[in-house]
Amino acid sequence: MLAEKGTTMICVTHEMACARDVSDRAAYCHKGIMAEIGTPEQLFNAPQQEVTQQFLSSVR
After folding, report:
1. Domain boundaries, the chain
2. How many DSSP H helices and E strands does the chain contain?
3. Of 10, 13, 43, 45, which is most buried, counting CB atoms within 10 Å of its CB?
4. What is the separation of C-alpha 40 from the centre of its chain, rounded to a whole number of angstroms?
5. What is the pTM for the complete model shown?
C-alpha cells in the first residue's frame, strides 16, 4: 500500500531474493559504507565492486 502511494521505503535485509524481487534500487553496505548502489538487475547480475561480487558469490 505504501509503495502504491509513492512513499519512499528503506528495507534492510539479508534475504537477497526478497531484496532483488521487491526493490526499485538496491545497495550493498560493507563495513558501514555503501559499497554499491544500483538497480536490482545491475547490483545482483553485474556488480561493479569487488566486495559486492565477493559477497554475492558467497551467498549464492
Report:
1. 16-59
2. 3, 2
3. 43
4. 6
5. 0.80
52, three cell numbers: 559486492
DSSP code, position 14: S
pLDDT digits (tens, 9 = 90+) for 11-57: 899 899 999 998 999 999 999 999 999 999 999 999 999 999 999 99
Q: What is the DSSP letter of 48?
A: -
- C-alpha–C-alpha distance, residues 8 and 17, integer Å: 20
Region for residue 32 given its phi and psi (left: phi exceeds 0; alpha: psi -120 to 50; beta: otherwise): left
Tell me the three cell numbers of residue 5.
502511494
For the record, the C-alpha cell of 23 comes out as 526493490
